[in-house]
UniProtKB/TrEMBL annotation:
Organism, scientific name: Frankia nepalensis
Highest taxon in the source lineage: Bacteria
Keywords: FAD, Flavoprotein, Oxidoreductase
Keyword set includes Cell inner membrane: no
GO molecular function, one term: acyl-CoA dehydrogenase activity
Family: Belongs to the acyl-CoA dehydrogenase family.
Secretion signal span: none
BP GO terms, sorted: fatty acid beta-oxidation using acyl-CoA dehydrogenase
Residues in Acyl-CoA dehydrogenase/oxidase C-terminal domain copies: 247-396
Protein name according to UniProt: Acyl-CoA dehydrogenase family protein
Amino acid sequence: MYPAYPAPSAKAVELYASLVDFLRTEVFPAEKAYEEYREQAGPGDHTLPPVVEELKTKAKARGLWNLFLPAESGLTQLEYAPLAELTGWSTEIAPEALNCQAPDTGNMELLHLIGTPDQQKEWLEPLLDGSIRSAFAMTEPAVASSDATNIETRIERDGDHYVINGRKWWISGAADPRCRVLIVMGKTDPTGPTHRQQTMVIVPVDTPGVAIERSLPVFGRQDQHGHCVLTLTDVRVPVTNVLGEEGGGFAAAQMRLGPGRIHHVMRALGAGERALALMVARAQNRVAFGKPLAEQGAVRERIAESRIELEQARALCHKAAFVIDSEGNRAARHLVSAAKVAVPRAVLSVIDRAIQLHGAAGVSDVTPLAALYARHRAMRIFDGPDEVHLGTLARRELGGEPLFTF
Ligand SMILES: Cc1cc2nc3c(=O)[nH]c(=O)nc-3n(C[C@H](O)[C@H](O)[C@H](O)COP(=O)(O)OP(=O)(O)OC[C@H]3O[C@@H](n4cnc5c(N)ncnc54)[C@H](O)[C@@H]3O)c2cc1C
């Protein structure tokens, strides 16, 4: 199919201008206070720096709120892409300031799509309001979790309750004291058909038997909302807490990961743009061997290569977004996989060049580059390691009909 993208709506264009202004006047100036709060609180602290709550109030007042969810914002994924990208320029603060942060966005999407009216009232409404946070608990230390059929957590029916036992890790967001709810993936029918064994269940964090052990660092750095190891021991929740249908967990995970993945990718482009902007500024201002670095041919080439890689990656991301809009998540699956591989690769290579150009400053905490590198390196593993996405793409190519045969 030849893609002819629709022009963005006037609303999307307006929101873009408003978000540029919000970043310039509110978000970037808040970064110092954010970092200072976290530094003073120490790595074991997972409370939200108060400056972000202030930004949330301001963003809401400007209508920059819940832009990720088409049913709330009226935006297509293609229209949302440049907005999400802008939030990636300040990836620790801006997504949450707009209530567009992972993992809550994926959880809100799921609750929106398959939650019952009661589940939506209890959990979706406060999440959309930004008054609580949530986590998605699938990955387990004991099994290769890139293959979701391996998940071993047991969800057993006992009358009108489920009893859940299992051990999870890398559960993002669970360390944040505002996290009230987990969406837990486990097996209700371990001997059933491979893709019908899994079920998702809503588990309030304060349910007896939920124990959050610790938050894991990413390349030695603790993220604000944390990535937790947790155990579920005889956790009892009513059967009405099933999300979707029993046996529908695998399909729901696929549903959740479609828009969730592409939103990660969109934000990553903003991080890449920030790294390139830092690289350009450094090249212009740093003098070595008698001239600015920007006058060195090798440096100029790295800047140009970075621009090419970001534009290529963006084109792929936007095409995936367009196909989600026009043909649905399923039809876009291979493009989302392609973007999920290509964008972090491109962004990492730009960040790596920016680090190199900054010398020792690049690997310290005086620029955001080292933290950006860690986050985007991890992205090549979370929401499906590269190899799994490459497998999806290869399967499609090998099973498809070429346009011409020779
Ligand atoms: C920062 C961060 C945040 C995360 N947040 C969450 C979260 O909120 N909730 C959650 O449930 N999980 C989360 N995860 C976990 C993440 O989704 C998993 O780590 C990921 O799915 C891979 O699973 P695994 O770690 O068990 O790796 P494994 O499945 O053991 O895979 C290890 C490696 O094996 C290789 N491999 C796997 N399959 C193939 C294949 N088919 N072909 C070739 N090679 C292959 C790949 O190199 C892969 O990286 C997060 C992880 C990180 C790092």
